[in-house]
Amino acid sequence: MKKNILLSLFLFGCSTPEYGLPKSDLGSRYPRVSSTETGGLLMSWFEKVDSTNWALQWSEFSKGTWTESQSITASDPYFVNWADFPSIYQVDGDNLVAHWLQKSGKAPFDYNVQISHSTDRGKSWSKSVIPHGDMDPKGEHGFLSFFQQQDESVGFVWLDGRHMGAYDPVTHTMGDMALYRSSMNNGQLGPEIMIDSRTCECCPTSAIRTDNSVLIAYRDRSEKEIRNINIIRYADGKWFDPYPVYDDNWLIGGCPVNGPMLAEYGNNVAIAWYTSPNETPTVNLAFSHNEGASFDVPIRVDLSMPIGRVDLTWISQTEVMVSWIETAEETTDIVTAIVSTNGDVQPPRIVTEIQPGRVSGYPQMEKVEDHLFFAWTEGGEQGSVMSKWVPISAFR
Questions:
Q1: Helix, strand, coil percentages, rounded to 5, for the chain
Q2: What is the pLDDT of residues 323-362, one digit of tens each?
Q3: Strand order in the sheet with 364-368
Q4: Domains identified in the chain, total number
């Protein structure tokens, strides 16, 4: 009963009409939101052009309103997927980059990463480029995350399946998914470098920069099929070896399609992730006070039946807001909790009820001043990208 009261409160009592909402058409899918230098937001999403074709749209939130949506690319053979979807990111000033996935072969998971950049804040976009030198049409390349490098150019990481190969019926094995990184400066691609040769096959990645380091988070895959969340850190002019945020000891024979999320405030870092050792689904959060060189013992935040698909943002110098999807007896909900750096966890709050299953994708959350913006996908014939604003005070 208490949960239903909270749900009613957030569905009908906490919307903020003075902040505008982005406009998207019926059938739109999979929003991705990122913050700008000036405290605004960028959002990309897929929208139907006709019965068979899509366009990648984008809009910017600034000074209380969203711009009219524009296309970055349209009518190419996109790979449209609930977990591995496009993004838009501000490098600096009017320099933006965007990425999407495009089919490269006939098999379901033959697709390439495509990256385009804009020097006029999205009025025009360059011809897209493929950052991975592996041009074999067979294989998947995706789950890309952008980040700002120490020299202010844009870096990015992605999962790369060039070494996976075909299934071996004798050994019952395939090759390994790997993690690669590269960069782009004034539209020119840097070298691609493999930074982990064996990772979980299809969990989203996350990357951030602090004053003195760059952190990349992803789900690892050990030879014994333990799938911990790993950190790769750049500091003091070098890349350090991967290390686990925490030894979850989650033994699982297949990819859970549930990636981590990093967030930074100054030189403090937080990370949230889903795990399920011993069939105990859990959403954890951990803090680092040394720019990701190490993390504290994780704090559990869920209500006992989480699905995962986390997001994370700092709401003050000492607090983060973490979001995830959780199931209840009769509903599936986007749930949030405020967690303090001293370990205190405020009671979880329900943002909205959503449709069960994969159609909701990865719900998005970003902070603007004293409000949080949420975006997700509603499925069905009348489904589309949905969004709402909630004042942070409503969660306390």
A1: 5, 50, 45
A2: 999 999 899 999 999 999 999 999 999 999 999 999 999 9
A3: 364-368, 371-377, 385-391
A4: 1
